[in-house]
Amino acid sequence: MSQSPSSALIPVRRKRDSRELILQAAEEIVAKRGPAHLTLETAATEAKVSKGGLFYHFRSKEALLEAMIRRSMEQLESEHLKIAESLTGERNGKMKANIIGTLRHVEGQRPVLTAVIAAIANDPKLVEPMRESIRKEFQELSKELSLRTEDIAILFLASQGLLLMELLNLSFLTPSQIRKIAQRMLELVEELDPTRPLKSLPK
Fold this sequence. Notes:
It is a single chain. This protein has helices spanning 5-33, 40-47, 51-57, 61-86, 93-107, 111-122, 127-141, 149-167, 175-191. Helix 1 crosses helix 6 (111-122). It contains nine helices and no strands. It folds into two domains: 1-59, Homeodomain-like (Arc Repressor Mutant, subunit A), CATH 1.10.10.60; 66-193. The longest helix is centred in the first third of the chain and has 29 residues, at 5-33. Helices cover 73% and strands 0% of the residues. By secondary structure, it is mostly helical.
């Protein structure tokens, strides 16, 4: 007896659903209790899956953390894309979307990202997924033809700096100051002239 197309997809869907449940459970653990409390056992218990089901997707805690980092960065990227879509037709819309999106991340609660950074401090190898995502976003921003690459880099590094300082609890700025800085960055996007020659650095 042959399987119907829908029934044939059920096992695959269940595997995807269980992977998502595990990642969500892991995020809950690190957000509420910190990365030190995340183990494969606690993730399996929180997700209500068997250890075998968890090992099918993640063979080690490092693999689970890497997947969490990729998931977090993909979510941030998706949010930036949605903002960019709302700015379609605007000059330098991608750069504006990056600034607006970063401001929202700074103002919002990002306990998972904060915990992920703490995990990276314990295992530097986990930095690669985050580096890859940041590199990809900068490459996309570099396609803005009405901005000079150096200006894009300055604005991008400024927005990333605001976010990282907040995530690391190093920020000395008030919410009002951060909003004013973001507003000024948006103004700079409009004011910067890519045809203006760069000044030479003093020797």
